[in-house]
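User: tokens in, sequence out, please.
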């Protein structure tokens, strides 16, 4: 086992995984596959922070990444033993985060899944996926879902400090669509105060329509009781006016979510795009 520093704030640890292809609870998905534990993006709304305790880390979320360096050995064995099923790549850690540039475990996983005719979907915020177009453009059983929570890169820096820029993600979408890959966008979480108003939602839908995206999945901010205090602390210096908005949200979350859903569906009626609201 070796340790290496990705940066001054993020520690990368090479580990031996016990399994790679694990049972998934996501509708339509048989398995989940995560080449990494932990994520260097450091998104403050991330639902997967429970992985810190699960993996016995004491570092803050976004400051550690475990690399499953025995992925080749384990996955090669599992695809021969397990029944063919739909695989979701990147359910609790972005498979194309910075560590992938060096370790290329996601690329390796894709090769193995293709060789054994496993269908798969890739979830990511990173334009690094374009590197692997040579593997996925000719594979009909592959789809890609790119996350976009805002069109404003200043807001992106606040909520997703180490993730890819909005511009890079839009360019990535264009390349994926041009390559004929089944590509959708995950607009989630919708960011209260920043991307939940009519103007912001319209702008996101119109921007994605302009790059020929046909399907958008929309989700709310989950685990609000845990995430809102973190977000409020982050907003204190830059967006103090947003704090009251989040405090009100906590008082009547069901009321907020119902109105948000109605707003999204109403706006979607006037768009030439398939919008699926997941809440």
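Assistant: Sequence out:
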């Amino acid at each position: 086992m070796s340790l290496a520093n990705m940066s001054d704030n993020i520690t990368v640890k090479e580990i031996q995984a016990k399994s790679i292809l694990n049972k998934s609870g996501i509708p339509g998905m048989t398995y989940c596959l995560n080449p990494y534990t932990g994520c260097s993006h450091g998104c403050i709304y991330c639902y997967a922070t429970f992985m810190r305790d699960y993996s016995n880390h004491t570092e803050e979320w976004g400051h550690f990444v475990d690399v499953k360096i025995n992925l080749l050995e384990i996955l090669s064995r599992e695809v021969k033993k397990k029944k063919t099923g739909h695989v979701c790549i990147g359910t609790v850690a972005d498979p194309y985060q910075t560590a992938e540039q060096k370790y290329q475990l996601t690329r390796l996983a894709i090769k193995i899944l293709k060789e054994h005719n496993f269908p798969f979907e890739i979830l990511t915020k990173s334009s690094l996926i374009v590197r692997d177009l040579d593997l996925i453009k000719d594979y009909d059983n592959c789809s890609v879902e790119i996350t976009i929570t805002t069109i404003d890169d200043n807001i992106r820096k606040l909520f997703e400090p180490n993730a890819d820029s909005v511009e890079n993600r839009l360019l990535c979408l264009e390349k994926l669509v041009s390559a004929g890959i089944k590509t959708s966008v995950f607009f989630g979480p919708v960011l209260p105060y920043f991307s939940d108003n009519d103007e912001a939602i319209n702008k996101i839908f119109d921007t994605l329509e302009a790059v020929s995206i046909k399907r958008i999945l929309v989700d709310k901010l989950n685990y609000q009781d845990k995430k809102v205090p973190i977000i409020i602390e982050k907003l204190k210096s830059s967006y103090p006016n947003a704090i009251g908005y989040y405090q009100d949200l906590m008082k009547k979350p069901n009321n907020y979510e119902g109105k948000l859903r109605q707003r999204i569906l109403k706006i979607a009626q006037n768009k030439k795009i398939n919008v699926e609201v997941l809440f």
